[in-house]
Target: Agmatine deiminase
Amino acid sequence: MPAEWAPQSAVMLTWPHPGTDWSDVLDEVEPVFLDIARTVLRFEHVVLSCEHVVRLQELERELNGYAQQHGLPGRVIAVPAPANDTWARDHGPIAVSGANGPELLDFRFNAWGGKFPWEKDDALNRHLANFGSFGTTPLVPVEFVLEGGSIESDGQGTLLTTSECLLTPSRNPTMDRAAIEHLMGETLGTHRILWLNHGYLAGDDTDSHIDTLARFCATDHICYVSCSDVSDEHYSALAAMEEELQQFHQANGQAYRLTPLPWPDAIYGDDGERLPATYANFLIINGAVLVPVYGVSQDEEALEILAGVFPDRQVIPVNCRPLIRQHGSLHCVTMQIPAGVVQA
Model:
């Protein structure tokens, strides 16, 4: 499984529509998706699916017109396809480097253990493949529930994940840790898995997806969310997670470089529930890193830190405050597709 910083051909977006939980706030969330799409087009293509065909046609005209007007390298591949929701990171295909080039693995998706409807999302990758979005790259079904947001790859056979997510019985009830490690080795080429047993984010529906907590920035470097406020409900779990990260070692035996990310001010929804704002939910693309910001005082510090972590890439903020109202952020609504797959 390649690292996220490996060359890409496109980013996948599943567009919000009135049949999703975004129906009451489409006027607030669509500008976020448009911002993401326009930014990605500066560097690569966008595979964009939408259940509503008229809206899809509008988006195709608008975004391709924008790209042509500004001389951008990316183009939109627009695909009419049903969807329950918009979390492409979790229902999108997971890429591996096969013997004959890239392959896309179509793992099962069951909405984080059956929390919400999922049947349309589970079939979405096949719709995209049938449309020709992935060219001649094979889409290989895998009868195992796995979300892209639950795993981080260093591109060299090491996987970072959380035990709370992968071992949750509502996903793969017949498989224990050893069986999951074996399957990850067979499907993703994993040689070893680093399991985090701690880590928590209020308002998160995913059972502690790793992409909200800790991320590979290079083969020897992990950045992670850190909370220094002892009165915050996250303090103990994140302090324990930090201690675990400090004990991890690379395959060569050396310790990882670790970079803490700032802890944003608490943000609450209309119902008083704390929302899962995290700077770890950034997206690495060709030549850039898109960073979620939330209109709080820690935004600038997070951007500065990640600019230092990725000195060879542009660091571009995206206002994701509307996204966290549905308990996800920037990385959650995107899925990168490797180089050589999408041709536009």
Summary: The longest strand covers residues 101-108.
